[in-house]
Amino acid sequence: VREPDLTGRHVVVSAGGTREPLDPVRFLGNRSSGKQGYALARTAAARGARVTLIAANSALPDPAGVDVVPVGTAVQLREAVLKAAADADAVVMAAAVADFRPAVYAAGKIKKKDDREPEPITLVRNPDILAEISAERARAGQVVVGFAAETDDVLANGRAKLKRKGCDLLVVNEVGERKTFGSEENEAVVLGADGSETPVAHGPKEALAETVWDLVAERLR
Ligand code: PMT
């Protein structure tokens, strides 16, 4: 158990995966379970922080002592994150956010027409929440942390993404068939905008969460 080094701090964590509806019964989604984000929320609360957890479609139980805000889509996630970030000392974006959403939402269930080929789905861009909160810090000294799920050239892609998004820290985790998404464990390198590189060995998602808070606490001091 760490020192209560986040006492008096308000931290915002996003978790889970957004779902972008096509019609009342279908959506475009991803495999995020919310486990990494919930581990971040639990460990921050244990270190004394007031925690707002913006939870996108996770089936996990609410962590004790954490303020949970459930959301569905990327647009809803953005609203909730911006609102909570207004007085936050740190924002950690562990959620897997859909980059695109269907351009049209069909109010009625899309029907299969036996005599016709299916209609293509047109997508439009979702807002980039991490880039937005990094560019317009709600508070001086606010620490912004992103996650990057990469399948190849993990470090090079991570460095480029850190720069593009403008956050202070980027947790780069490699994803694969049975890796990271949904599992109890994770393995990552935390890249700092200051050029630092902190590897975190394969282990429980709580261990990675503790390292993230160590690096955040350092930057808040
Ligand atoms: O939930 P689990 O099953 O435990 O899995 C954890 C995880 C793999 C989902 C998590 O560790 C993780 O890597 N989350 C980020 C996944 C992701 O969407 O990465 P990305 O490279 O697409 O996005 C980079 C960053 O930008 C992320 O912080 C993301 O929250 C943010 N983003 C992305 C798109 C968008 N439109 N807005 C954003 O803010």
From TrEMBL:
A GO term, aspect molecular function: ligase activity
Co-factor remark: Binds 1 FMN per subunit.
Annotated binding of CTP, by residue: 99, 109, 127-130, 147, 161, 165
Organism listed in the record: Streptomyces levis
Pathway per the UniProt entry: Cofactor biosynthesis; coenzyme A biosynthesis; CoA from (R)-pantothenate: step 2/5; Cofactor biosynthesis; coenzyme A biosynthesis; CoA from (R)-pantothenate: step 3/5
Keyword annotations of the record: Decarboxylase, Flavoprotein, FMN, Ligase, Lyase, Magnesium, Metal-binding, Multifunctional enzyme
Entry similarity comment: In the N-terminal section; belongs to the HFCD (homo-oligomeric flavin containing Cys decarboxylase) superfamily.
Reaction catalysed by this enzyme: N-[(R)-4-phosphopantothenoyl]-L-cysteine + H(+) = (R)-4'-phosphopantetheine + CO2; (R)-4'-phosphopantothenate + L-cysteine + CTP = N-[(R)-4-phosphopantothenoyl]-L-cysteine + CMP + diphosphate + H(+)
Domain of life: Bacteria
UniProt function note: Catalyzes two steps in the biosynthesis of coenzyme A. In the first step cysteine is conjugated to 4'-phosphopantothenate to form 4-phosphopantothenoylcysteine, in the latter compound is decarboxylated to form 4'-phosphopantotheine. Catalyzes two sequential steps in the biosynthesis of coenzyme A. In the first step cysteine is conjugated to 4'-phosphopantothenate to form 4-phosphopantothenoylcysteine. In the second step the latter compound is decarboxylated to form 4'-phosphopantotheine.
Protein name, entry field: Coenzyme A biosynthesis bifunctional protein CoaBC
Renumbered residue ranges of the record's region Phosphopantothenate--cysteine ligase: 11-221
Domain DNA/pantothenate metabolism flavoprotein C-terminal: 6-218
EC code(s) of this entry: 4.1.1.36, 6.3.2.5
Full protein stretch here: 180 to 400 of 400
Cofactor section: Mg(2+); FMN
